[in-house]
Design brief:
The protein has about 400 residues and is α/β, with parallel strands linked by helices. Helix content is about 40%, strand content about 15%. It folds into 2 domains: about 5-40 and about 295-400, Aspartate Aminotransferase, domain 1; about 45-290, Aspartate Aminotransferase, domain 2 (3-Layer(aba) Sandwich), CATH 3.40.640.10. The longest helix is centred in the last third of the chain and has 22 residues, at about 290-315.
Length: about 400
Amino acid sequence: MNPLLSKLQPYPFERLKQLFAPITPNPAYRAISLGIGEPKHATPQFIKDALCANLQGLAGYPATAGEPALKASIVGWLERRYDLKLDAAKQILPVNGSREALFSFTQVVMDPTKPNPIVVCPNPFYQIYEGAALLAGATPYYVNSDPARNFAVDWDAVPADVWQRTQMIFVCSPGNPTGAVMPLAEWEKMFALSDKYGFVIASDECYSEIYFRDEPPLSGLEAAAKLGRTDFKNLIAFTSLSKRSNVPGMRSGFVAGDAAWIKAFLLYRTYHGSAMSGTVQAASLEAWDDEEHVIANRAEYRAKFAAVTPVLSSVMDVKLPDAAFYLWAGVPKHVCNGSDTQFAAELLAKYNVTVLPGSYLAREDAHGVNPGKGRVRMALVAEQAECLEAAHRIADFIKTYSSPSI
């Protein structure tokens, strides 16, 4: 057995299952889960129709590089969304969702001939980053986000000797779980560090189409183009249909950027056996070509967050994020002693609402600080009425702990 498997930590939802094992939820309330970030809005009918109309795609092996028509559709979306012009043949590669691609791309990048390689991760973070780094033989280095700066990641806190060993960095914008979006100045800093130390930037952008400000989130590719980096050197962006189009079960997305890395990734995937089904490719093309359903989906999230956020912000340290579909809420210090795990456990027992402890989404940094401690992640993925009911239950739960202030 691969000895690196022993380094993997239990996935957050396995830890949550263990936390909840001895608990009997209050039967007076129906169960509501804000725990898992799985889209629950209806899949658009035209996407389901496209799947059914293209079942002939099941009869043959798909090309790993993807069908030219799908890649042309992706290029068109990138041009409409970000005003970018990419080469479909050299700078685009369809993948089976961003999760699969984030993991497998890490295996391509890491050079085992160099001693003590590092992968830098934001903290808190999407757990695939850590697992991908460990199974590639690298050491993750965690960089905390700063609540005082709208949860921007403190890249300046990384020592030079860490950057010197860094082969790859994960960035997530909009962020999971914080919802923070990287501005152009932060991207400029990131590119300068990449040029100086030679590491690859893996930009996870799967929440890019769910946002609450007037200006849509900046892509890493878009930032590079604005800064004159049209070759996208050492930059690969990961984008998915799952949240944008409410099709998590299709496992469909793409990677785009540096042509040299796309070529290497294609070679790896040829052996990896991860080509996207022709049926899924046909439906994906239809999804990338349509924007009306994305606008409607975003409006639904905006209405939901507008209703829920004020209820929770009256009793917790939480505010409307820049983007994504999470609320990253601070547990009041007088409630459950400020413990995120105790808060989640008592909330389930008394009000039958599931939230995810923030400490499960983070690790202790070099100074022993877990930035998720004392916070919980709430995924507002269900219908508005259900999310609003959950918010009122949470508020009622917190109010059972009397205190004049948060």
